[in-house]
């Protein structure tokens, strides 16, 4: 019997390419403006292939010869751009309905952003006050099945 279900985020419950591609293109434009890369057409499929890689793996795969300072700055541009897009509600979720389960305020905010009920886990790293507004509270993983 399965005791734990773990969901991947990128591409499983969230269409990450919708915010990652514009963020990558912004960073690539910056690299081009710094004259450290030549402008080239980069296909969406190539960009999608980097999802799931950490930033070091991505840049080492795409531009292994690029100086690490530029890789670090481009990574920061990607991250900042993705955060801005999420805050502007440009993140694209796969069709719901959803039930979000988590232990931190950010998890609750995620649930609210996709208009979903939220189970606040008091056994994780968050505290009850941090999870105020949760639809349900559980003190153990076993309690979740009674709700879902």
From TrEMBL:
Q: Which GO terms describe its biological process?
A: DNA repair
Which GO molecular function terms does the record list?
A: phosphoglycolate phosphatase activity
Provide the Gene Ontology terms for cellular component. Answer: cytosol
Listed transmembrane segments: none
PANTHER family attached here? PHOSPHOGLYCOLATE PHOSPHATASE
What name does this protein carry?
Bifunctional 5'-methylthioadenosine/S-adenosylhomocysteine nucleosidase/phosphatase
The source organism is: Dorea longicatena
The opening ranks of the lineage are:
Bacteria, Bacillati, Bacillota, Clostridia, Lachnospirales
